[in-house]
């Protein structure tokens, strides 16, 4: 199944995709739906009661950021083996992790506005949505607790990221990380079998990787993180980006005002975000 | 004024210290109190109506983590000039920042339990409590928006912190960062004039610094952070630790099972946290 948070008749609602469009659920968004321990049953009940005339057509709604209020957004860097090996590095023993906040996220079609950086770079990623409370989980327990997967772009302000050794400040600009458009439930897609992760700028492909080459799988990442912090339903884990980011190009390439950034994982969906660079003279890097 | 979150008659309450003890306020904790835009007026009204028999004696309550639900906990590293200069480094141009979550915090008298690290180190710090919504603030605006200050210890799992280049995983263990015991309002203490920041283990002083030597003052840090992310009332900014951490000793020294960690800022208060090391054999570093 594919779950979404939609804007419909002036309100936001959690919804499930059906052939005729979207079936609204009894929660204002997927953060609220997932925080209900019985969300799978609610979904089954709604689908069992589904009559064709209950669905809202796709052209009557707007698809929003599916998870507006995760308590934790934890990201992994350096996680695609082919990219690490091509850079001449050894595979890491532990995942490199950093944090974002709910405010960092934005919608699948939202404009991304940079007011303080002209070094805006792209990082197409698979994101994992936690479906149950998890502490000190094994990889098997973690796998069973994954609600689903979504598409993310860990858009990074490289100048801010490199001001110090800690990446956080370049990764935590408000409304800079688009996610969505839907959460594909865990029975729908299998990252270990392989999902393509693709990034395009104005239609030109700049990144393509496959999640089967992740050093730390979704389940291993979730299990690892649960050793130090308890994860809750609706928390989001970004799994890292494959090769092809702008910072690694010669010369480095950054997103320009007006660029259209597309991030796609076939089987889940596509994010389409227009870039707006509005740096005042005194903030220019 | 000194504000606290207290446990009293089976419930938690925001409260203000008065000479006879604590005056409970109309909020379940300081996170809720500060999220009310009229918290200063509520405080004034409560104090104006204060009769001696309204106060709860200190021995009838327990002092809890003052801010149980900040949306953001952002920390600065490498911020004491005397420590940076004694290490032979240059003063940084930008603050080094990393993130914690609300779950990372714990109470001023709570036991700190380490189940996955035997390299538990101390970092006594001044923490800044944001009192108003702030985006793209000047240092002057930031200074005016500071609700107050509290004591924190950024207890760090050095083995996890050093597994990768990003410190986050060693800094974000659940219930590892004690804060409190009170929030001293901004009219009560002045970090730029100088507050001593002291850490003791089993009574032995291991750290002593003064906030007047901070490279980035509280107001500058808050203003800087507000350039990339909007701060909300109740958000917490940790300002960094002075010299004297265990990792810098020869040989390195870490907290042992049963140690009592005291963190004091005269004028605000003292945290007293007993350390419990409960590492299973397979997790031992």
Automatic annotation (TrEMBL), chains A, B:
<dbReference type="GO" id="GO:0046872">
    <property type="term" value="F:metal ion binding"/>
</dbReference>
<comment type="similarity">
    <text>Belongs to the FAH family.</text>
</comment>
<dbReference type="GO" id="GO:0019752">
    <property type="term" value="P:carboxylic acid metabolic process"/>
</dbReference>
<dbReference type="InterPro" id="IPR011234">
    <property type="entry name" value="Fumarylacetoacetase-like_C"/>
</dbReference>
<dbReference type="InterPro" id="IPR036663">
    <property type="entry name" value="Fumarylacetoacetase_C_sf"/>
</dbReference>
<protein>
    <submittedName>
        <fullName>2-hydroxyhepta-2,4-diene-1,7-dioate isomerase</fullName>
    </submittedName>
</protein>
<dbReference type="InterPro" id="IPR051121">
    <property type="entry name" value="FAH"/>
</dbReference>
<dbReference type="GO" id="GO:0016853">
    <property type="term" value="F:isomerase activity"/>
</dbReference>
<dbReference type="Pfam" id="PF01557">
    <property type="entry name" value="FAA_hydrolase"/>
</dbReference>
<feature type="domain" description="Fumarylacetoacetase-like C-terminal">
    <location>
        <begin position="72"/>
        <end position="275"/>
    </location>
</feature>
<keyword id="KW-0413">Isomerase</keyword>
<keyword id="KW-0479">Metal-binding</keyword>
């Amino acid at each position: 199944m594919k779950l979404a948070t939609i804007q419909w008749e002036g309100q936001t609602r959690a919804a499930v995709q059906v052939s005729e469009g979207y079936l609204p659920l009894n929660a204002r968004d997927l953060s609220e739906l997932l925080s209900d321990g019985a969300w799978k049953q609610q979904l089954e009940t709604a689908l069992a009661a589904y009559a064709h005339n209950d669905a809202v057509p796709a052209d009557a709604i707007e698809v929003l950021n599916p998870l507006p209020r995760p308590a934790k957004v934890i990201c992994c860097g350096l996680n695609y083996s082919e990219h690490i090996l091509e850079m001449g590095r050894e595979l890491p023993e532990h995942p490199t992790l950093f944090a974002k906040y709910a405010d960092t996220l934005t919608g699948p079609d939202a404009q991304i506005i940079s007011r303080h950086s002209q070094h805006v770079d792209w990082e197409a990623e698979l994101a994992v949505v936690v479906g149950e409370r998890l502490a000190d989980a094994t990889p098997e327990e973690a796998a069973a607790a994954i609600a689903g997967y979504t598409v993310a772009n860990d858009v990074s302000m490289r100048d801010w990221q490199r001001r110090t050794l800690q990446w956080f400040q370049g990764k935590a600009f408000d409304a800079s990380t688009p996610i969505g458009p839907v959460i594909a439930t865990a029975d729908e897609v299998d990252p270990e079998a392989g999902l393509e992760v693709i990034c395009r700028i104005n239609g030109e492909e700049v990144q393509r990787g496959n999640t089967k080459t992740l050093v730390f799988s979704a389940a291993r990442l979730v299990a690892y993180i649960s050793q130090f912090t308890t994860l809750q339903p609706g928390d989001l884990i970004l799994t890292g980006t494959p090769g092809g980011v702008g910072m690694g190009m010669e010369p480095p390439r950054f997103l320009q005002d007006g660029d259209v950034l597309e991030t796609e994982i076939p089987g889940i969906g596509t994010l389409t975000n227009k870039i707006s660079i509005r740096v005042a003279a005194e903030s220019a890097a």
